[in-house]
């Protein structure tokens, strides 16, 4: 079996996959079965029992969840928590 970069033929090494991933136009919704483009970012503050939902954030943060418009509208949080919705200013 021939190996390329120590990987068996037929299996592409990560370096060969990376350019394909970089060409993606936008980030996708974090919901498991959703394939729509993300438009908002949801973050949690467990200490204050608060969730913040706002415009799509910059680079992905490990504690942030990107959501499509449909899932952003239907966000639900545990009982007793507060949702703070930040909207982008429209000119």
List its traits.
91 residues; two-stranded antiparallel sheet; globular; 4-stranded mixed β-sheet; 26% strand; 6 strands; alpha+beta
Please tell me about this protein's structure.
The protein is of the alpha+beta class and 91 residues long. Helices cover 15% and strands 26% of the residues. The strands form two sheets. Strands 5-3-4-6 form a four-stranded mixed beta sheet. The protein has a two-stranded antiparallel ribbon with strand order 1-2. Strand 3 and strand 4 form a beta hairpin. The longest helix has 9 residues. About 12% of the residues have low confidence.
Topology, pairings included?
Blueprint: E1 3-4, E2 7-8, H1 14-22, E3 40-45, E4 50-55, E5 64-67, H2 69-73, E6 82-85
Parallel strand pairs: 4-6
Antiparallel strand pairs: 1-2, 3-4, 3-5
Short description:
The protein has 91 residues and is an alpha+beta fold. It is built from two helices and six strands.
In terms of DSSP E residues, the strand content is 25-35%
If you compute it from the alpha carbons, what radius of gyration comes out, rounded to the nearest whole angstrom?
Answer: 18 Å
Task: Give a count of the beta strands, DSSP E runs of length 2 or more.
Answer: 6
Low-confidence stretches: 14-24
Question: How confident is the prediction overall: mean pLDDT?
Answer: 78
- Shape verdict: globular
Helix content: 10-25%
How do the SSEs run, as a string of H and E?
A: EEHEEEHE
- Kindly report the oligomeric state of this protein: single chain
From the helix content, strand content and strand pairing, which structural class follows? alpha+beta
């Amino acid at each position: 079996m021939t190996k390329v970069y120590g990987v068996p033929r037929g299996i592409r090494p990560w370096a060969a996959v990376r350019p394909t991933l970089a060409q993606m136009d936008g980030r996708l919704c974090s919901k498991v079965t959703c394939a729509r483009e993300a438009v908002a970012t949801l973050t949690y503050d467990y200490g204050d029992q608060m969730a913040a939902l706002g415009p799509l954030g910059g680079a992905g943060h490990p504690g942030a969840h990107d959501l499509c418009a449909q899932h952003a509208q239907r966000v639900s949080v545990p009982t007793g928590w507060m949702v703070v919705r930040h909207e982008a200013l429209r000119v």
